[in-house]
């Protein structure tokens, strides 16, 4: 595998891909290691993750540089991801004991009957992951999986392989046995080779298209399958924001939600609906904000927008623009590819006069591009927000909390945002609906995902 820097096309490193036989060997090793790993006291597994955390803190700058070099993520945003990781690790370290505690549900001396629920690890977990927030989405899976006594085979995206190998290095340095957590090098075919093993669960983060293929590949095997997939996340800006945060602040906040990480976030704002009373003012502030974003070299501290990790995505974005324009949309900003060698990204793009018939308002863009649509009222906004196969997050910006709550109760999404967007909390479940996935990571639900119940019926 050739790892290249998407900003300048330079080769960073060449790596040897895993093969079917090396994947098999890693699987066998993970299987053998699982019992001993699960038998260690939880406190020892917690201590390993704590040491892993200290390693991340110590090496933050180096890890941020590696991530920026191979993904093109602006360096300040790479540092933010690594800083944000610490709170997630703390959450998992603190919460696992509480979740794993056996629960006595009946203890009846008269019947001489005791009933207890205990939780056991699933076994060997396949963790196939994405490149856009590799530390977040990887650790959402392998950290609770390891804490609950599973062993993990981690298949990072080929676009974040060096980062994946760093995760392995730090976990092993922290005391996790090399067979309890192993990293695979390679593309989709290596992921397929992993799925051929007798794994006990597949935890996938990536696109709906790949998630569907994986679900179909393992469908009949009766193993735990969890999917964290893409989104087409809407926000609605109601007219009463003028009485609260104000239109300008909301435009700035939502522009950041749409363009942060070059728009390559699963929960990036991907569709904006604005009440007609404030539409013109909102669009004017929004466009000014986007014009002010500093574009440049991802390695530069000042850069906010850099390059797309996968330049193939430029063609997807261009197709969405062409489709929208053909159906009557108007480009308010951007719209053209930029950068050397045929383009490394697309200009930050704002599209108006959009509607639900356009790919731009239906299919995940996953780039620095947004469509903004004017709506008459709350009812129209809600109906358009739900007009999607996806259901990851949805946000309402309004000053009246009751109005916001009523609308959010009606959205078909796993996360509901009132006056915020593009936000993830370790304490709340991260769960998609529809094409955005099945199951939850993070929160106590994201720990329970890695265990299976055993019901004890004890008489005597
Ligand atoms: P992909 O679906 O392209 O790839 C995800 C992973 O699957 C990669 O490791 C990939 O390998 C691997 N893979 C590809 N084909 C197969 C196969 N047939 N069998 C097994 N594994 C396979 O997604 P991206 O990496 O491009 O990530 C972007 C997507 O992830 C977006 O849709 C985004 O919204 C979503 N995402 C969702 C999140 C959530 O929490 N809901 C969080 C982050 C991202 P390789 O890349 O090496 O080919």
Description:
With 460 residues, the protein is an alpha/beta fold. It has two domains: 2-229 and 436-459, Aldehyde Dehydrogenase, Chain A, domain 1; 233-425, Aldehyde Dehydrogenase, Chain A, domain 2 (3-Layer(aba) Sandwich). 40% of the residues lie in helices and 23% in strands. It has helices at 20-39, 42-58, 60-71, 75-100, 134-147, 161-173, 188-195, 208-218, 247-259, 279-292, 313-326, 378-385, 401-409, 445-448; strands spanning 2-4, 11-14, 103-108, 113-121, 124-128, 151-155, 181-183, 201-205, 224-228, 233-237, 269-275, 330-333, 337-338, 345-346, 349-352, 369-375, 390-391, 393-397, 415-418, 430-431, 433-434, 437-438, 440-441, 451-459. Strands 12-15-16-11-10-18-19 form a seven-stranded mixed beta sheet, with helices on both faces. A hairpin with a 6-residue loop joins strand 13 and strand 14. Helix 2 crosses helix 6. The radius of gyration is 23 Å and the shape is globular. The model has no long low-confidence stretch (mean pLDDT 97). It binds NADPH dihydro-nicotinamide-adenine-dinucleotide phosphate (NDP). NADPH dihydro-nicotinamide-adenine-dinucleotide phosphate binds at residues 128-133, 137, 155, 157-159, 187-188, 191-192, 195, 205-207, 210, 213-214, 228-231, 266, 364, 366, 392, 430, 432, 437.
């Amino acid at each position: 595998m050739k790892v290249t820097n998407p900003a300048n096309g330079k080769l960073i490193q060449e790596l040897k891909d895993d093969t079917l036989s090396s994947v098999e060997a890693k699987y066998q090793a993970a299987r053998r290691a699982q019992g001993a790993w699960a038998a260690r006291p939880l406190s020892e597994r917690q201590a390993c993750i704590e040491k892993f955390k200290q390693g991340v803190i110590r090496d933050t700058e180096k890890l941020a540089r590696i991530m920026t070099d191979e993904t093109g993520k602006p360096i300040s945003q790479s540092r933010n991801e690594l800083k944000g990781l610490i709170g997630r690790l703390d959450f998992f370290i603190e919460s696992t004991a509480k979740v794993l505690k056996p629960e006595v549900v009946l203890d009846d001396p008269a019947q001489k009957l005791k009933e207890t629920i205990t939780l056991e690890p699933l076994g060997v977990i396949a963790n196939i992951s994405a490149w856009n927030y590799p530390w977040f989405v990887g650790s959402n899976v392998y950290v609770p999986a390891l804490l609950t006594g599973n062993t993990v085979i981690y298949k990072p995206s080929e676009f974040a392989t060096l980062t994946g190998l760093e995760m392995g290095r730090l976990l092993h340095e922290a005391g996790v046995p090399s067979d309890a957590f192993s990293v695979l090098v390679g593309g989709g075919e290596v992921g397929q080779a992993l799925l051929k093993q007798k794994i006990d669960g597949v935890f996938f983060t990536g696109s709906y298209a790949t998630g569907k293929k994986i679900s179909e590949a393992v469908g009949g095997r009766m193993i735990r399958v969890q999917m964290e997939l893409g989104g087409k996340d809407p926000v609605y800006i109601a007219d009463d924001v003028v009485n609260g945060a104000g239109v300008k602040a909301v435009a700035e906040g939502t522009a950041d939600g749409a363009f942060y990480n070059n728009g390559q976030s699963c929960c990036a704002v991907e569709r904006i609906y604005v009440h007609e009373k404030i539409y013109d003012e909102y669009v004017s502030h929004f466009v000014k904000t986007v014009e002010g974003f500093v574009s440049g070299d991802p390695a530069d501290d000042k850069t906010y927008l850099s390059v797309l990790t996968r330049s193939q995505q430029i063609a997807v974005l261009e197709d969405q623009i062409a489709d929208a324009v053909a159906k009557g949309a108007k480009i308010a900003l951007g719209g053209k590819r930029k950068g050397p060698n045929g383009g490394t990204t697309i200009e930050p793009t704002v599209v108006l006069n959009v509607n639900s018939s356009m790919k731009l308002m239906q299919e995940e863009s996953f780039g620095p591009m947004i469509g903004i649509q004017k709506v008459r009222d709350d009812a129209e906004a809600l109906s358009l927000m739900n007009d999607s196969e996806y259901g990851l997050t949805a946000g309402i910006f309004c000053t009246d909390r009751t109005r916001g709550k009523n609308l959010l109760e009606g959205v078909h999404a796993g996360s509901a945002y009132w006056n915020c967007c593009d936000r993830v909390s370790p304490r709340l479940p991260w769960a998609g609906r529809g094409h955005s996935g099945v199951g939850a990571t993070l929160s106590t639900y994201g720990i329970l995902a890695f265990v299976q119940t055993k019901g004890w019926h004890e008489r005597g």
